[in-house]
Amino acid sequence: MTDVTKLTAAELGRKLAAKELSAVEVATAHLDRIDAVEGKVHAFLHVDRDGALKAAKDVDDARAKGETTGPLAGVPIAVKDVITTKGVPTTAGSKILEGWRPPYDATIMTRMREAGLVMLGKTNMDEFAMGSSTEYSAYGPTYNPWDTTRIPGGSGGGSAAAVAAYEAPLAIGTDTGGSIRQPAAVTGTVGAKPTYGGTSRYGLVAFSSSLDTPGPCARTVEDAALLHAIIGGHDPRDSTSIPQPVPDVVAAARLGATGDLSGVRLGLVKEFAGDGAEPGVAAAYRESVDALVKLGAEVVEVSCPSFKFALPAYYLIAPSECSSNLARFDGVRFGLRSGDDGKHSLEEVMQLTREEGFGAEVKRRIILGTYALSAGYYDAYYGQAQKVRTLISRDFAQAFEKADVLVAPTTPFVAFPLGSRTSDPYQMYLADLYTIPSNLYGGPAISVPAGLSEGLPVGLQIMAPTMADDRMYRVAAALESALPPLTPPAL
Ligand code: GLN
Known about the structure:
Blueprint: H1 9-17, H2 23-41, E1 44-47, H3 49-64, E2 76-80, H4 107-114, E3 118-123, H5 157-164, E4 170-175, H6 181-187, E5 190-193, E6 213-218, H7 221-231, H8 249-256, E7 265-269, H9 279-294, E8 298-302, H10 310-325, H11 346-357, H12 360-373, H13 379-402, E9 405-409, H14 425-429, H15 436-441, E10 445-453, E11 456-463, H16 469-482
Parallel strand pairs: 2-3, 2-4, 7-8, 7-9
Antiparallel strand pairs: 1-3, 4-6, 5-6, 5-10, 9-11, 10-11
Helix pairs in contact: 2-3, 7-8, 8-16, 10-12, 10-13
Glutamine binds near residues 131 and 432.
């Protein structure tokens, strides 16, 4: 008998359409898998068994009546806990939102429900998506299915681990500085950050509004593309949503899977060609570039001198925006309220709530951002960082004159041991050295498995111009077709 949890989303979709499997059977298999492995992985903050079985039954009923259903109708999905889900707890990994049940669905959630995707539950994450290891969750860490003494990446470590551990074939992540791609890299899965504005932010618990981008996590490039096509596209409820259709990412992934990259120009970013990367990561990167060249791609070296300022610029812009966005957690409107005993003033209740409800990293960012935005410092910090952002976009524009896509490792190191980087914030921030430039520019980028280093997965990152998301899927699918698939050891 085939193990249903090992099938890809595309295969599940086909078997469901052919009525070889029912959506209830598929949901049950995944819920059972969650029961079996969650003790070791802790990918989920909330499993919605009843909601999943009901959604699955609705898909089966619709199909029995002959109603038309999409390619992923009945396929289960895990959703990062930063996405609002009507009536289902949404905490963003924070104590301050404990017990909050949103009164509405995020736009991407509405689209997934309409497409018949079955939500299994909400996944663990660093508090408010700030972090690179999921260790900053207020609810305890997630463990990497490849080695449960190691981190699954972050902030979306729960989504990546759920997919890697066969708890869900698909998941949703959000990427502000790398939180879809870096977890994908260290768990041997695929993670795509769409063009900023290509997927709606309506109903995302906001971290850094000019950077936040929801996107797909999957085990194959085609699956990521199928999900991207469902969640993407214009949303009038998000003022920064791009009023254009999503490029045909599914067709691009299928074209790439034929393994022909003739005519595609790969730009190797000189500044990221292994600088600062572990030797095993640099070696896997070179081997994956060789594999792409064998498929017909042409290699050009490009220089992006401003990329070296991306990390410091990001750590001014993202905290600045978060200090403003997180002001709404005041103990009045959502979740936790502390000190409301009639003896404290409103101001004191707000202070006590924020003191108790936010973790150390979130407080660090709020303080940093408030400082960077304060009178007298604004131009020196926030203003300078915005100028760097412009220079980075210019580097991308020049590089894309010579190359169709840019490639680099996704992250400088493989999954690190739990606890090894929590005492030094800078060491944690370094995980996003290679992913942040695309966020500052706004273009799409994907991480695809690129082999192993010391038995742990490495990711290749492929970056494309804004609204050319299809290009990165083509190259990613080609690499996937050329390399042996990565399978984690049994849990
Ligand atoms: N790790 C980065 C940070 O801590 C990126 C987070 C993200 O993409 N949400 O800010």
